[in-house]
Design a protein that fits this description.
The complex is a heterodimer. Chain A is an alpha/beta fold. Chain A has 15 helices and eleven strands. The longest helix of chain A is centred in the last third of the chain and has 21 residues, at about 365-385. A two-stranded antiparallel ribbon of chain B has the order 1-2. The chains are: A alpha/beta, B mainly alpha. Chains A and B meet through helix 9, helix 10, helix 11, helix 12 and helix 13 of A and helix 1, helix 2 and helix 3 of B.
């Protein structure tokens, strides 16, 4: 069994043909984890015993001819997605011993298919970050070059898939947290349309931005996973109604050329242009588009996101769950619990959010950001009237060194310049590996990002497959 | 726009204990970040209809689940509990 090239689609065929059992497949991954995860640190916890039990059940489903697309597929879950009875810490000290009281909807859906849960993966605390260095439990390393970050916040999930420690993984994407680590680790990451996948049981970060999505080796696998987890859910009031969506064959790709002007590594831009050339050869028309508000996306995001973070993290106060630091008065229980439980980046974002929502500043910051967000959303809608998809690099540069940006929050935030406009508009996007650039003698992967109109994941899968084919 | 931010007051509002050392760092970082986000002021937004902005979506306040169905599971997560209730410190006090 060669785990490095194994995909969900290939494993499905082999499992159904009884070439190997789900039990054997799960054991192969558990062995890989035991051998390699000491160095990578993709996992915060591995559930070997329950994974083997789930694999045996999956084998029974397969034997009974009841196999589904993910039956017996060993996967990893980001540490902010709830599995009843399992710890879900969001890589925070404040939830270090928090045992989930219920299953997330995505967990239920995966379990119903007979997927095997290998463990929970490392992340930036509460998904706040772009390198997984903000985890309270130490950073994850990039399997492509262990002196570099895997990206974040779903860095553990990306490293697990890229390092052969899980066949696929779930992550969450608030401003790029699936696509950016996927790009840095050389795998595929899908951020579905806002509302396409239920957020019930996802520990909330920015509720108007968050989406759960898959990290996989191929576009086909991302498609399989998306089909398994999407759909309306009465438990998530922002989940979209189920409606058939017909995808026409995409032909025209829009490039917001002016947006690419600053801050990109020249060879990453060259690789992006080379991918465009190959797509042209494959029959796509490439057209420059004007989207003048996109460069403001990052600033808008750093108003709206902390505002929502400060609101969502208000629930962690030492009363209903998680850490509780004893104190004389209830007020001191709150402040001490939060002071000790949250890490530096979470604290920074809580304070920023408190500021932009405070009386006297909310108009200039929060409401203004909301209006510019509406403009960005409109800009996407207008652009999609003339093109089938918008394409951008996923990140301006390949994976950076561990520790390189930890002292400079603004430099870290700039990692997400090309990914946040997507969350602000609520549209779906995918990052697909498009080649490598060399840094210090190592080949580092680069991601090509495809953005489609609301509900049009089908377009992403079609163009994504074309990018894969162009890579040869 | 002023970049003088009273971090001590913000921390109090957010109910967050912040050490003196971290306070010194935040007093530089928060205004730096606010300086960056202020670029949004350059975008004209007078022509944007407010109804395109995200809004809260609530479920209908009806059809509750069976009473007590999740009580045990949810209480189990609380740091302190007694008689099917979450224990909290006294909220109102007579003195002071």
């Amino acid at each position: 069994m060669d785990l490095t090239s194994l995909t969900v689609a290939k494993a499905r065929k082999s499992l159904d043909a009884k070439e190997y059992s789900a039990f054997d497949l799960t054991n192969a991954y558990l062995e890989n984890i035991a051998a390699k995860d000491g160095e990578i640190h993709a996992y915060l916890e591995v559930w070997a015993d329950s994974a083997r039990e789930e694999a045996k059940k999956a084998d029974e489903m397969i034997a009974a001819g009841k196999s589904q697309p993910l039956t017996g597929i060993p996967i990893a879950m980001k540490d902010n997605i709830l599995i009843k009875g399992r710890i879900a810490s969001a890589a925070s000290k404040i939830l270090e011993n928090y045992c989930a009281s219920y299953d997330a909807t995505v967990t239920e859906k995966l379990r119903a298919q007979g997927a095997v849960f290998l463990g929970r993966t490392n992340m930036d605390e509460f998904a706040h970050g772009s390198s997984t260095e903000n985890s309270a439990y130490g950073p994850t390393k990039n399997p492509r070059d262990t002196s570099r970050v895997p990206g974040g916040s779903s860095g553990g999930s990306a490293a697990a898939v890229a390092g052969g420690l899980a066949l696929a993984a779930l992550g969450s994407d608030t401003g790029g947290s699936i696509r950016q680590p996927a790009a840095h680790c050389g795998i595929v990451g899908l951020k579905p349309t806002y509302g396409a996948v239920s957020r019930f049981g996802l520990i909330a970060m920015g509720s108007s931005l968050d989406q759960i999505g898959p990290l996989t080796k191929t576009v086909e696998d991302a498609h399989i996973f998306f089909d398994a987890i999407q759909g309306h859910d009465a438990h998530d009031s922002t989940s979209l109604p189920d409606a058939p969506h017909e995808t026409k064959k995409p032909k025209i790709l829009g490039v917001p050329r002016a947006f690419l002007a600053s801050g990109m590594d020249p060879d990453v831009l060259q690789l992006f242009d080379a991918t465009l050339e190959k797509l042209k050869t494959a029959g796509y028309e490439i057209r420059d588009v004007e989207m003048p508000t996109l460069p403001y996306g990052l600033a808008v995001y750093y108003v709206i996101m902390p505002a929502e973070v400060s609101t969502n993290l208000a629930r962690f106060d030492g009363i209903r769950y998680g850490l509780s630091v004893p104190a004389e008065t209830i007020g001191d229980v709150y402040t001490k619990t939060r002071g000790q439980g949250f890490g530096p980046e979470a604290r920074r974002r809580i304070l920023l959010g408190t500021f932009v929502l405070s009386s006297g500043y909310a108009d200039a910051y929060y409401r203004k950001a909301r209006a510019v967000r509406a403009r960005i959303r409109d800009e996407f809608a207008k652009t999609f009237a003339s093109v089938d998809a918008v394409v951008l690099p996923t990140t301006p540069a390949p994976a950076f060194k561990l520790g390189e940006k930890t002292a400079d929050p603004l430099a870290m935030y700039a990692e997400d310049i090309f990914s946040v406009p997507v969350n602000l508009a609520g549209v779906p996007a995918i990052s697909v590996p498009s080649g490598t650039v060399v840094r210090e003698g190592k080949e580092l992967p680069v991601g090509f990002q495809i953005i489609a109109p609301h509900g049009d994941e089908g377009t992403l899968f079609t163009i994504g497959a074309a990018v894969e084919n162009s890579r040869g | 726009m002023t970049h003088k931010v009273d971090i001590v007051a913000l921390a109090k509002l957010a109910r967050l204990d912040v050490s003196a050392e971290e306070m010194t760092r935040l007093e530089k970082e928060i205004p730096d970040i606010l300086g960056f986000v202020e670029t949004i002021q350059k975008v004209a937004t007078t022509d944007i209809a407010n109804d395109t902005a995200p809004r809260n979506v609530m479920r209908e306040d009806a059809n509750p689940h069976e009473s007590g169905k999740y009580t045990e599971d949810l209480l189990a997560a609380a740091p302190a509990q007694k008689n099917n209730q979450v224990v909290v410190k006294q909220v109102l006090s007579r003195t002071k």
